Amino acid sequence: MPFSFGSAYSRFFRLISDNFALFLILGLILTVLPTLAINYGLYAGLEVQPGSWWEKWDRVSGSPQIWLVGSGLVSLLLYMINLSAITEIAILRAVGKSVSLPTVLGHAAFNALPLVLILLMTGVVAGFAFLLLVFPCFMFLMAAYVAIPAYVSEQGLGLWGSVKRSFVLTRGHRWTLFGLTLVNGIASNLFDKLLEVLGANLGSALPMPGGLTDTLITSLGDSLSSLTGMIFTAAVYVGLRISRDKMRPDDAAQVFD
User: Fold this and answer.
1) In the prediction, which pLDDT does 1 show?
2) What is the 3-state secondary structure of 168-229?
3) Could you read off the pLDDT of 72-99 as tens digits, one per residue?
4) Model confidence over 152-170: pLDDT tens digits?
5) pLDDT per residue over 178-234, tens digit each?
6) Which residues, at least 6 apart from 52, have a Cβ–Cβ distance to it below 8 Å?
7) Whole-angstrom Cα distance, residue 150 to residue 160?
8) Where are the beta strands (DSSP E) in the chain?
9) Spatial CA neighbour of 76 closest among 110, 42, 107, 117
10) CA gap 174, 57 in Å, rounded
């Protein structure tokens, strides 16, 4: 199937419907519960109000910043473990292969640190591109869109090799990826606004401080957005791999045998 706007969303929703239980377990263990626990701890222990990581950083000083950095690193590692696991599941399930969660999580834990390094590498390059012009920054990010899934599923690429592999897979589809990113960003913002309204209404109804209600609802929203973003990235990678390489999904799954 050629990669397109519609095929990306079709594969995304099919992945969710076919693997809902697996993704629910992974999402709860690696995203939702840790995010709730971390943000609750930051609020209850350090009185850090909900917001983005940088907003939280601006609100604290001194030793609380150490806790904030530590929680950020834990969240990042868990994110990479979850993304690796979801990518492996997406490829295996695309060809009807069975999934062993302990095996998948073992692979994911082994991949976590290299994936963080890939993220840092692409972030640094994108930062330099942004200093030159905004457009090259966005195009680089679209070109490197599937660098992390490529590392997970294609052995021997290495860190920068995964980025180069992403450049190959995304060639000819970067404007489509840009459009997908734009639509997803709009949907995410609308979801955040909905959560703000929900938090405002629940804050007066629940017997807990309003700030705590906002923290828990925002954490839940952030974790759900993060989880769906991982599934979408995995769906895009599988679609690009099949479209670009003209290969069957089971060829892509051989790396996990």
Assistant:
1) 67
2) HHHCCCHHHHHHHHHHHHHHHHHHHHHHHHHHHHHHHHCCCCHHHHHHHHHHHHHHHHHHHH
3) 888 888 888 988 898 888 888 876 778 8
4) 888 788 899 999 999 999 9
5) 999 999 999 988 887 787 777 666 655 555 555 566 667 777 777 788 888 888 998
6) none
7) 11
8) none
9) 117
10) 33
For 232, the enclosing helix (H) or strand (E) is helix 210-245
Q: How far apart are CA 236 and CA 254, in angstroms?
A: 19
pLDDT for the residue numbered 221: 77
Q: Identify the burial level of 208 via C-beta atoms within 10 angstroms of its C-beta, where 0-12 means exposed, 13-18 middle and 19 or more buried.
A: exposed
Structure tokens belonging to residue 72? 């950020």
Residue with tokens 């963080």: 116
**Structure tokens belonging to residue 201:** 């209404």
Amino acid at 92: L
Q: 114-127 in b/e burial notation, b at 16+ Cβ within 10 A?
A: bbbebbebbeebbe
Angle at 238 between CA 232 and CA 243, to 5 degrees: 125
